[in-house]
Amino acid sequence: MSSLDQLQPLILPEPVGFWPPAPGWWLLLVLLPVLGYGLWRARVWLPKRAADENAEQPLDPLRQAALIELSQMPKPYDGAPAGAWLQQINGLLKRLCRNHYPYSQSHTLNGRKWLAFLDNRCPAAGLTRWMILVEGAYKPECKLDDKAINGLTQSVETWIRKHV
């Protein structure tokens, strides 16, 4: 007789039944309906809150005054020199920054740093693409076409409305 003949036959494991589940599954069986009911009740509030966040907030008096001042500035259409107009816009933005960010020393910034500061406060305005805003005041005969004037005005208006 060989050593293999002395071995006992293999014992196959019993198949695991579906029922009864382990003790942790009972807790899950109770928590799933409670969680489902909670989510079903929460769906009532979620759309309302999202709609409230997207609504435009009323502007504070300082922003309203800045928008009025911006709209009353004479724009340099038809090839008129734009240097003075660009200086007025820069002055308006610097005053707003001095009031909204008193400890940032933003009034000392110029050039690309000034535009980067503005863009960090409101990227939607995209003021970094308007380098003429900081360079134009120093050019002797800076002239802008009507499309550039309207685009810059729109960007500054967006910045005034939405900066944080």
What is the topological layout?
Elements: H1 23-42, H2 46-54, H3 61-72, H4 83-100, H5 111-121, H6 132-135, H7 146-162
Top keywords for this entry?
elongated, 164 residues, mainly alpha
Overview of the structural elements:
There is one protein chain. The protein has seven helices and no strands. It has 164 residues and is mainly alpha-helical. Helix 3 (61-72) packs antiparallel against helix 7. The longest helix is centred in the first third of the chain and has 20 residues, at 23-42. It starts with 22 loop residues before the first helix and ends with a helix.
Low-confidence stretches: none
What sort of overall outline do the alpha carbons produce when their principal axes are compared?
Answer: elongated
From the helix content, strand content and strand pairing, which structural class follows? mainly alpha
Round the Cα radius of gyration to an integer and report it.
34 Å
Q: Order of helices and strands, N to C?
A: HHHHHHH
Percent of residues in helices comes to: 55-70%
The biggest sheet amounts to: none
Helix count, DSSP H or I runs of 4 or more residues: 7
User: What's the average pLDDT?
Assistant: 84
What is the count of structural domains?
A: 2
Q: How is the quaternary structure best described?
A: single chain
End-to-end span in angstroms?
A: 91 Å
Total strand segments: 0
- Hey, roughly how much beta strand do the residues contain? under 5%
